[in-house]
Amino acid sequence: MYPFLSDLRVVECASFIAGPSCALHLAQLGAQVIRIDPIGGGMDFNRWPVSADGRSLYWEGLQKGKRSVAIDMGRPEGRQLAVDLITAPGAGAGLFVTNYPQQGFLSHEALAAHRPDLITARVLGWRDGAPAVDYTVNAALGMPWITGSDRNGEEPVNHVVPAWDLVTGAYAAFALMAAERHRLRTGQGQEVTVPLSDVALTCLGHTGQLAEALTTGDRPRYGNALFGAFGRDFATADGQRVMVVAITARQWSGLVKALDLQAAVAALASQLHADFTEEGQRFTHRQALFPLFDKAIGALTLAQARERFEAGSVLWSSYQTLRTALDTDPRLALAAPLFETLGHPSGLHYPAPGAAASFHGTPRVPVQRAPHLGEHTDQVLAEVLSLSPTRIGQLHDAGLIA
Amino acid sequence: MYPFLSDLRVVECASFIAGPSCALHLAQLGAQVIRIDPIGGGMDFNRWPVSADGRSLYWEGLQKGKRSVAIDMGRPEGRQLAVDLITAPGAGAGLFVTNYPQQGFLSHEALAAHRPDLITARVLGWRDGAPAVDYTVNAALGMPWITGSDRNGEEPVNHVVPAWDLVTGAYAAFALMAAERHRLRTGQGQEVTVPLSDVALTCLGHTGQLAEALTTGDRPRYGNALFGAFGRDFATADGQRVMVVAITARQWSGLVKALDLQAAVAALASQLHADFTEEGQRFTHRQALFPLFDKAIGALTLAQARERFEAGSVLWSSYQTLRTALDTDPRLALAAPLFETLGHPSGLHYPAPGAAASFHGTPRVPVQRAPHLGEHTDQVLAEVLSLSPTRIGQLHDAGLIA
Predict the structure, then answer these.
(1) Residue A81 C-alpha, separation from nearest chain B C-alpha, in angstroms
(2) Which of A16, A351, B202, B277 could cross-link with A339 by S-S, CB 3.0 to 4.6 Å?
(3) pTM exceeding 0.90
(4) Interchain contact, A357 vs B331, CB within 8 Å
(5) 3-state secondary structure chain B
């Protein structure tokens, strides 16, 4: 974590990945984040993966460093408490992250009646507010039809990384920072909506894939071959797999040399009248090229391949399992300063990450665990809304807070 | 695009997706972005997808709204020009986005000697600066072993969405905004490094996957089944596919009701002593549940399924191809205000996206096309470095700029 945003106070009413990760990124750069949950937990409170006794590792990963307030928002008094927290005064306050629907008591319009300079960052599914999740957006955009190989026949292949959720969370944090900067200069608040579907669609636009679909049609399935240049998985003599990539001319010449394939590749180029220094030709002629590399890499053990690739500055990686990577790969060690081993609400102790960015001019501050549900209800109501102990006691007695 | 960041000037020396998309996000919220390329184009200038005559749709997607300066950075005079542009004075200037190595003439230390409050946002592959790309980081982290199904046997399945690149680009834009906010308050610049591998690792940490791997071991392949709740692809009577998801209790009851499966699901729950209102039990017993849904959905055409799902507020999508989606799905229409049809450097006209976020208090300004390579060299050198026409002519004659 870093202290940059410690003058900001963000209130979050959100579930799953995109909204909560947006607020998590803010928290890990120092913002005070208050997460409001229903009593007993929101829709994501039990989301898998879970510990042996059913506590969500997902939830406690996404809520790190936030304060937790539990309110019964099913009753008018509870809804009013949430609105009061979101619109409480303070120069750096009035920042709201949510994935609740645009209508209802958490609409920007209703909230801005209490605090006109409120900034609402609202993650949506579809642009019109209809629900969508990473997996439905991805299916709608056709990515599962170009994932996998012939082996998958007529079946789509879902991705396992919730890519659009993760991009949306980071992008929403960026958009909120831009809106907050604008508010500092003009005093103007506003609602910022970030639909998962628009994030996915713009990403495909930014990388040329929409233009390709419009002009060339649908991309076929290319298995593990990297589109438009040289790259694929290869098996080693000892049954391991490596991903090898050569996008630039230099990566290509380094790879060919590392495998002693200069003569064979030159002969093939001559035979095909091809120029493999052009990345596109390496892709076009991949079916002719791959067997050379299958044979060369297939003759090496992983250790031998590693030695050659590292000596030749080849762009590659072995295919590891996640657990093997964490246990053995020093580049992925869960070590300080990025990770700290903490006790979590599940009762488990394990390393938890701080901010992915390293700010070299500023020391990191300790990573903080996720709260227990409602851990800060009393503290936050006293501090932000100046409620008396008596009043807080009454709210507990009425079952409005926990 | 939006005008929020128009007082900021960013210089970019970067290739591929993460660094250029970081600067693109800044440009689309109004920052003036100057992209410096080698004469003839950088490593990504011909990256696929390409037009019929070989112009990169990828490059022109990622450089939208930037100004292009072409400099021979292989010579000391060219390197000095780049350094001068990066460190030029101005309150909102001194922002540098790059994926060049940390050593050399574009090191933060060397640059900060000319402008101490410089902010450098540097995208790295591995944390130590060693090269990596999306596909090698993903292989190292084991995601390809849990993508795909039994059909893929012992083969890894690469993802096709460059997820870690895209998250890194958005997250780096967020981190740069935080650093710029810090500079506004303290005058202090700094280098911010954002390694692809740390972005991927922290994302897996934030969503509980690292804790899962450390405590439970590696996650097996679950095919298209959504981990930890109910979800999978299903075939319809007319040979279409739908992705159906029920994470929350409400989504589950809605789905069961939409397919008239209440009695069958209740009977199964009773037989298995299961409580399907718990998301985890829907996952644990998925092999018993899926046949009920295979049969129910398999009896419906896509149109019939759509009718039932929409009436029942089911969370679902059909699996479309990208082109079909763009042609027929109104939720993914490439229409104003998010998209505008423009002429691009390739000579093609097609719709290009602005910012994924919609700021409801501020009108969008027009989306701008990518520059031609070197289109703004003279203009930028005159404007930012106050070079005279004579001097600019000399630099052209010497082949230092183009």
Answers:
(1) 25
(2) A351
(3) yes
(4) no
(5) CCCCCCCCEEEEECCCCHHHHHHHHHHHCCCEEEEEECCCCCCCCCCCCECCCCCEHHHHHHCCCCEEEEECCCCHHHHHHHHHHHCCCCCCCCEEEECCCCCCCCCHHHHHCCCCCCEEEEEECCCCCCCCCHHHHHHHCCHHHCCCCHHHCCCCCCCCCCHHHHHHHHHHHHHHHHHHHHHHHHCCCEEEEEEHHHHHHHHHHHCCHHHHHHHCCCCCCCCCCCCCCEEEEEECCCCCEEEEEECCHHHHHHHHHHCCCHHHHHHHHHHHCCCCCCHHHHHHCHHHHHHHHHHHHHCCCHHHHHHHHHHCCCEEEECCCHHHHHHHCHHHCCCCCCEEEEECCCCCEEEEECCCCEECCCCCCCCCCCCCCCCCHHHHHHHHHCCCHHHHHHHHHCCCEC
